[in-house]
Design a protein that fits this description.
The complex is a heterodimer of chains A (240) and B (177).
Chain A (H helix, E strand, L loop, with lengths): L6 E6 L2 E6 L4 H7 L23 E4 L6 E2 L10 E3 L3 H17 L14 H8 L16 E2 L5 E4 L8 H10 L4 E4 L6 E4 L16 H5 L5 E3 L13 H12 L2
Parallel strand pairs in A: 1-5
Antiparallel strand pairs in A: 1-2, 3-4, 3-5, 6-7, 7-10, 8-9
Chain B lengths: L4 E7 L5 H7 L3 H7 L2 E5 L12 E7 L2 E3 H12 L1 E7 L1 H5 L11 H11 L15 E6 L9 E3 L6 H12 L14
Parallel strand pairs in B: 1-2, 1-3, 3-5, 5-7
Antiparallel strand pairs in B: 4-6
Classes of the chains: A alpha+beta (240), B alpha/beta (177).
C-alpha cells in the first residue's frame, strides 16, 4: 500500500485533519493540539479504554466512542466537546470519586494527582452520586512501596507497565466491577512477591495516590511517567 | 446599613480550618465588611440562627443529630447557601469513619486509648449519625467551594461575588484538597 493510501482525512470539532490509518482518534486529536481528557491512557503503554473519559461523538454512531481505542476512518466527523459529552465525563468522574475513598486532603498524592487535576479541569465541584465508602486494604509490606486500594481507579497502568515494559507480570487484576483489585502475584503481599523486581515503574505511572514510594510527601510525590516513550523507542531500535 | 447583605457562617463537623482561611483574608475583610453584617457565626455571640440571612457559609460535614437539625433550620432561613470546603462538599476527613461506622471510632477514643473513666459520653453531647454526609446530600446547596481549606483568595472571590448579588461557580477555579 502506498503512503498516500494510508492517510485518512476526517474532521475533529470541524477542523479538517489528516491522520495515518493506524492512528486512533485520540492520537490524531493530540497531534493537532485538540484536548481530550484521559486517565487510563499513558503514552508508551497499550490502550485498554478502561476509564471512558475520552468518549467522543462520531457522526453516525449511535453511542459515544472512546477516542483512545477507536481508529480514524475516512470522512469521520468527530466532536470532542459538547453539552452531552461534558455531562457524561462529569458523571464518569463523579463515579470515580464515589466508588472508593478519595480523600484528597490527606492523600500522599495531593497536588500531584491526575484524578484531582481532572476534577479541576472538568469543573467538578461536588459529587451528586452517593459515596460508597468501601472498606479497602492498604498493603505496606514492600520495603519501598505501598499500595492503597482506597485511591485506586483501576486504570491498570501498573498492570500494563509491569507486563509490557518491565516484563515481570507481577501486577494483575482480580474480581469484577467495583470489587476489582489490582494484586501482586496471586494476591500475595507485595513484599513477598517473587516476581517483583522493585523497579518502581508501577509507582511512576500510577495517576493517583494508590501506588506511592514510602517516606515521600508533598511535592516529592510528583510522578514521572514520561520515561516510557523513550524506553519504548530505544527498545524498538534494538529490534532486528 | 439597610442595603448591607446579612451574612452567617456555620461550623459543623470540620476542623475550623475554613474559618481560619476566612480570617486569612486579612485587610480584605475590612474592605468587604462595609458590605455585610455578620449576624451569626462561631466568631460572634449570638446563640440562635436568625430568622433571615442572605448568605450562609457552611464549614463541615453533617455528622451528628445536632448538625442535621442545624443545617435544616439554616437552609430554611437562608437565601444563598454556600458549602465551604471539602468537609461540607465531600465529607472529607469527617467522613473517613463511614467505612466502619461511628462505634469503633468512639470506642477507640473513649475506651481503648483512655486509662481513667472509660466510657462513651452520651449526656450533653449530640448522638453521631451512622453516616457522615456532605451538606448537599441533606439540603439543597447553591454554591460549592472546594478546598481543604479553600484559599483566602478563593473565599474573597466568592464573597465579593455574593455581596454583589451574583452567584459564582468555582468549577475550574478551586480544587479538592
Amino acid at each position: 500500500m502506498s503512503a498516500e493510501a494510508n492517510i485518512r482525512t476526517l474532521t475533529i470539532d470541524g477542523a479538517d485533519i489528516s491522520a495515518r490509518a493506524d492512528q486512533t482518534i485520540l492520537e490524531a486529536a493530540r497531534e493537532h493540539n485538540i484536548a481530550i481528557p484521559t486517565l487510563c491512557h499513558l503514552e508508551g503503554l497499550s490502550e485498554v479504554g478502561a476509564c471512558r473519559l475520552c468518549l467522543v461523538e462520531v457522526k453516525g454512531a449511535r453511542r459515544l466512542l472512546p477516542a483512545c481505542v477507536t481508529r480514524v476512518e475516512e470522512g469521520m466527523e468527530v466532536t470532542t466537546h459538547s453539552a452531552k459529552i461534558d455531562r457524561y465525563r462529569q458523571m464518569i468522574l463523579e463515579l470515580f470519586f464515589a466508588e472508593r475513598n478519595h480523600v484528597c486532603s490527606v492523600c500522599v498524592a495531593n497536588g500531584n494527582c491526575e484524578l484531582q487535576n481532572l476534577a479541576l479541569e472538568l469543573g467538578m465541584t461536588h459529587v451528586e452520586i452517593p459515596y460508597q465508602y468501601p472498606q479497602l486494604p492498604v498493603d505496606a509490606s514492600h520495603p519501598r512501596f505501598t499500595v492503597d486500594h482506597n485511591r485506586c481507579v483501576l486504570c491498570t497502568r501498573c498492570v500494563r507497565v509491569c507486563s509490557e515494559i518491565e516484563g515481570a507480570n507481577t501486577w494483575g487484576v482480580m474480581g469484577r466491577g467495583a470489587q476489582s483489585l489490582v494484586i501482586t502475584d496471586l494476591k500475595e503481599p507485595w513484599g513477598e512477591s517473587e516476581t517483583c523486581t522493585s523497579c518502581g515503574k508501577c509507582v511512576q505511572v500510577c495517576p493517583t495516590g494508590a501506588l506511592f514510594e514510602k517516606g515521600r510527601a508533598g511535592t516529592r510525590t510528583a510522578k514521572h511517567p514520561e520515561f516510557l516513550p523513550y524506553l519504548r523507542i530505544m527498545r524498538e531500535g534494538d529490534q532486528p | 446599613m439597610t442595603d448591607r447583605k446579612t451574612l452567617a457562617t456555620v461550623w459543623l463537623d470540620g476542623c475550623s480550618g475554613c474559618h481560619m482561611s476566612l480570617l486569612d483574608m486579612d485587610e480584605r475583610l475590612i474592605e468587604l465588611s462595609s458590605q455585610f453584617v455578620l449576624l451569626y457565626s462561631p466568631l460572634v455571640d449570638r446563640k440562635t440562627f436568625p430568622e433571615r440571612v442572605d448568605v450562609t457559609l457552611v464549614e463541615g460535614a453533617v455528622a451528628s443529630e445536632e448538625d442535621l437539625k442545624k443545617i435544616r433550620r439554616i437552609r430554611e432561613h437562608t437565601g444563598v447557601l454556600v458549602s465551604l470546603g471539602d468537609c461540607a462538599l465531600t465529607g472529607n476527613v469527617s467522613a473517613m469513619r463511614n467505612t466502619c461506622g461511628p462505634q469503633p471510632v468512639l470506642l477507640r477514643v473513649y475506651q481503648e486509648n483512655v486509662d481513667l473513666k472509660q466510657h462513651v459520653p452520651t449526656v450533653g453531647v449530640p448522638a453521631l449519625l451512622d453516616r457522615v454526609r456532605p451538606v448537599h446530600e441533606v439540603v439543597p446547596v447553591d454554591v460549592f467551594v472546594p478546598g481543604c481549606p479553600p484559599s483566602a483568595d478563593t473565599i474573597y472571590q466568592v464573597l465579593s461575588e455574593l455581596l454583589a448579588g451574583r452567584v459564582p461557580t468555582l468549577g475550574g477555579v478551586a480544587h479538592f484538597g
